[in-house]
Design brief:
By secondary structure, the protein is of the alpha+beta class. It has a domain of 132 residues: 2-Layer Sandwich (TolA/TonB C-terminal domain). It contains four helices and eight strands, in the order βααββαβββββα.
Length: 208
């Protein structure tokens, strides 16, 4: 398991232990300013408004292209908003190096951590606490979906399992509605169970 990650627009390299070494006040101030400059555009707004800060540990699953396919919070900051939104940010902005040794269907995991620090904060962050999967925020899963407005293009979409279930249900309902409306417009039944024009029939000039 690897323990380094890179965030586009907001990066933290965990080559050094996050809470191990003591730093001078000037070093802490400089690092804090740098962290804030990096994270200001990605800091979860609800957490920022509530003045919440803390470290969140996570585990990501990567494909051979280095793209995140799954993200699970493993260590909690003690603030639900920070915990919940960390994987959303990681799946949208994290970039990892491709692994040519992995096959198209193979994956690997990386463990990482984000230290969310408020601007000008002098708080010494506590190490995040391990959290049981059952009590952790929902895992975020990324899939390729058809890009809106085209049947040829695809885009990467990341959602929680609950959101994916809702998305699938909505897509199924929209498809069934489309089939029903098309069948009614053509004077037949496109469900495959009723009478009228058979599903296998080719459409005419009107699209029926």
């Amino acid at each position: 398991m690897h323990k380094s990650f890179f965030l586009a627009s907001a990066c933290l390299l965990l080559a050094q232990p996050l809470f191990a070494a003591e730093r001078t006040p000037d070093q802490k101030a400089a690092q804090n300013a740098l962290n804030w400059d990096i994270f200001q555009k990605l800091y979860p707004k609800r957490a920022l408004d509530a003045h919440e800060e803390g470290a969140v540990g996570f585990l990501v699953t990567l494909d051979n292209k280095g793209e995140v396919t799954r993200c699970q919070v493993t260590h909690s900051s003690g603030h639900p908003v920070l915990d919940e939104e960390t994987c959303q940010i990681v799946t949208l902005h994290a970039q990892f190096n491709p692994d040519p040794l992995l096959g198209p269907s193979q994956t690997k995991t990386h463990e990482g951590m984000i230290a969310w620090k408020l601007p000008a904060s002098t708080t010494v962050l506590e190490p995040p606490k391990p959290v049981a999967v059952a009590k952790a925020p929902e895992q975020v899963v990324c899939k390729r979906t058809v890009r809106v407005g085209t049947l040829a293009g695809f885009e990467r979409t990341c959602m929680t399992r609950t959101e994916w279930a809702r998305y699938t249900a909505d897509m199924k309902r929209d498809w069934e509605k489309l089939q029903t409306e098309h069948g009614q417009a053509c004077g037949g039944d496109y469900s495959g169970t009723g009478g009228g024009r058979a599903v296998e029939s080719l459409p005419d000039a009107t699209g029926c």
